[in-house]
Every structure is written in structure tokens, then in C-alpha cells.
Amino acid sequence: MWKLESTKKIPVYQQIMEQIIEYIQKGQLNPGDHLPSERKLAASYQVNRSTVVHALEELVSLGWIIRQQGSGTLVNEGRWGRSATPRMNWRQLLSRETPQTEPYLLELHEIQKDTQTLDLYTGELPLDLIPDFRLPAYTWEELLIEEKKQRDLGYPPLQRIICERLYREQGLEAATNQVLITSGAQQALFLLLQVMLEAGDSVAIEDPSFLYSLPIFDTAGVRLYGVAMDEEGMQIEALEQLILAKRVKLIIVNPTFQNPTGNTMTLKRRKQLIALSEKYQLPIVEDDVFSELNFLQLPPSLKSLAPHQVIHLGSLSKIFGSSIKIGWIVADQSLIQRLSEAKQMMDFSISVFPQVVAYTALTDQSFETNRQELIDTLKHKRDCFYSCAQSVSSDWQFEEIDGGLYVWLKWRHQKLTRKDWGLFLQEKLLVAPSFLFSNDTMAMRVNYSRMTEEECYIFFVKLQKISEIIGGRKYERDN
């Protein structure tokens, strides 16, 4: 039972880990079972005892086994999803230096005020595209009545309509006690970090990813590790190696119209990701804030494929703008309860008013018609983008736009520098270079929805000019 294949080309300690996990998954080792002693395992595997100790310590960190003095090593009987008590290391937080703002963003935000700039950086729809709806006139007394309907998990009518829409749109079945209303998707992420992780824990995310720019991970003391993507999504082999090497505790993905690339994970890759997460008993957080803006039939959500393995995050901010700051978490009831308790302890309460507004918007009779009109408008903008983009196709590569707000343009030639990206600001073109989302400098995120036809033409005229400059290096560089 305790023997390894000599043909594998991964470190021995990782082979030991994989074998023990396989035994647990196949039922050869059951919860509460004792493993042989370190000495016996080392003898069976014909390795040094330190190699066995390394493998067992990694399995402890991943939650597969428990090591108790006097009792030996046992298969863990628990599951992921920890205490609801939020963990904030205030002393450590206050002792940190305030992180410096990215110089590119400082300059970008300064010229963002200029009415002559073309803002393709902002991650929202332009105001004229946000679907309209009629908000009923509420008296203060009526709002107080609605406030009394408020529960720990949120405003029940809003919870119900979210459940109905998830089932209708994605085939995702959820009861209202599995839905926690939050003040946007970022608050939802923050709650998950506080409840499920501890300072020093590692999280796997896509590379590139907008998550790199969020301060909530640094605040929680959580380490982010990026996993390279291909045309199907996050690369599974690379993710598995990261899980074993960095003691990953959580996987966060944005599988539909990913931010910043706009890529959608294929069904095959979604199933592979779920299988890997089940192998290592790692929860997946599915950030699903763009699926309302789809042009084609989407693959099933991760949550619908693995209801108990996936935590689903949603938001209204991408379709209604940040003015309706409402998000939600869909998860097993036990985890939702722990998150709710943590939310109350941190006084993250949400007024009933924005929830009533969100409910009104989603139940408005014209909502579906308005949403379809929005999608038709976005398709038109996409077609305009395609037409104009031919002028720079020899310099920039981009994928098809099947929904969402973003298109990812990759430079085809020599390595770009930060100074090259400064040319965009000089031309008053506000874009999001790839170094905001990873260590890469060769691509940019563009919010194509924010351009009129005339502005689209202007963008590509300026982009062609910039491409000629950076391609020919026709400007002085600092040494």
C-alpha cells in the first residue's frame, strides 16, 4: 500500500501527498483512521524521515490530516469552512506602511478629470446605457415597514428574486437561507477571507486578474498566487503544482467574461477545475458579476456543476453601475450562517433602501426588454470595434467579444516598458495596462462599451500613432 511509482517526475514528498489523498478519496483511509508512524512510512517508501515529515506537514496545512501529540497522525474528519469569528490582526495592520499608489494610476486619475480624455479604463457601463426602471414613491413610513422585513441574511423579497433569477438564468437551485445579501461583491470577498482564511494563508487566482489590485487581501494578510491562463481558462496542471507547493487554501476564479481578459472558461476546463478542487478538498469562489451581459449561450456556472464545492458571488454593479451597491453570496447554509454572524460582528449592515431599489429594478416589467436592448447596443459597439481594429491588427492581437465589458489587446512585438504606456496618457487615452493585473507589460484592458462610433474611430487613430512610436522607438528614453 505504501509504495511509489518510480516513473513520476515530481518531488517524492508530493508523490507521497498525492497517494495519501487518493487513499482518502477512494475510502482506503477513512475519517479518523490512523496513518503509520513517520518511521514506518519512511521505511515503506524507502526515503528519509524528513521527506515524510515534509509531506505530512503539507497535508496538515491543506486540511487532509491532523497530527496530535500522543495520538499520532489521523485522517481529518472535518470539512472546509471555518469559524465565523472574523480575524483582523489590527496591530499588524496598523504597523504597516501605507502602500504607495501605482504612479501610472496617479497620473491617470489626474487627467481623468479632463473632459477631452477618452476613458476606457473605468469598469462600468456609461450612464446612458444603464437600464432604466421606474422607482415607486415610498413614504418614510412605508420604508420603515419594509425595514421590519429585514432579516440577518438580507431583505427577503430581494433574496427570493435572486434565487428565481439564478434558477431561470443558470439552472442554479438555491433556497433563500443559502443567499446572503452584501454591499457589493468586494464586501462578499472580504467576508469570505475573514471567515475561511487566516493571515499567511495562500489563495490561487487567475493570472492576470483584477484581484491583484484589491487591498482586501493585504488587509487580511492573505497571499495571492497567480495561475497562468490559456484559451480555455486557468491551467489545471499549473494550479495543481501551486496547490502542492504553496499550501493553497482557496481558489478564486472569474470564469465568465474574466476581468481583465474577457475570456470565458470552457465547460471542459470548468469540470477539470471542479475535479481538482474536490481532489484536494479546496473550495472554489466563483466571481460571476458579468454573466448578465452575455451575447451567446454560456457554459453552466461552476456552482450549478458542483453545488457544495463552489461559493457563488453575484452583483448588480456591472449592469446598473456602482450606484446600486448590492451583491450576494450563494453557499451552503452552514457557511452562509457563519458569514452572516461575521457580517453582524463587523457591523456590515445594509440599509433596506438599496435592497428595495435592487428588488424594484429586477422585478420591473421592462427590465428584460431593457436588458436585451442593452445587449443589442453592446453588440453594435463590438462590431464597430472589430471594424476599426483592422487598422492595428498587425500590431495588436485580440480575442472575440462574446459579452461583458472588456476586450484584451496584446502587443505582438518587442517587450513594452512602463514608459511606453505613458504615451497613452499623453494622448489622453485611459486604458488599463496588464501590469495592473500581473507582472506582464504586454497587453491592455479596454472597456469597449464606453465608446461611441466616433470615439472608436478616434481611439484607433491614436492607437495607430502610438503603435508606430513604440514600434520604432522614436522617442528618447531615460537610461
Order of strands across the main sheet: 4-11-10-9-8-5-6-7
Query: Helical content, roughly?
Result: 40-55%
Principal-axes shape call: globular
Strand percentage: 5-15%
What kind of oligomer do you see?
single chain
In terms of per-residue confidence, which ranges show pLDDT below 50 for 5 or more consecutive residues? 79-84, 474-479
- Any idea of the CATH topology of the largest domain? Aspartate Aminotransferase, domain 2
Structural class: alpha/beta
CATH homologous superfamily placement of the largest domain: Type I PLP-dependent aspartate aminotransferase-like (Major domain)
Q: Counting H and I runs of at least 4 residues, what is the number of helices? A: 18
Arithmetic mean pLDDT: 88
Question: Could you give a short account of the major beta sheet?
Answer: 8 strands, mixed
Distance between the termini: 62 Å
State the CATH class of the largest domain.
Alpha Beta
As a whole number of angstroms, the C-alpha radius of gyration is 25 Å
The tally of beta strands, per DSSP, is 16
Protein name: HTH gntR-type domain-containing protein
Organism: Candidatus Enterococcus ferrettii
Family: In the C-terminal section; belongs to the class-I pyridoxal-phosphate-dependent aminotransferase family.
Keywords: Aminotransferase, DNA-binding, Pyridoxal phosphate, Transcription, Transcription regulation, Transferase
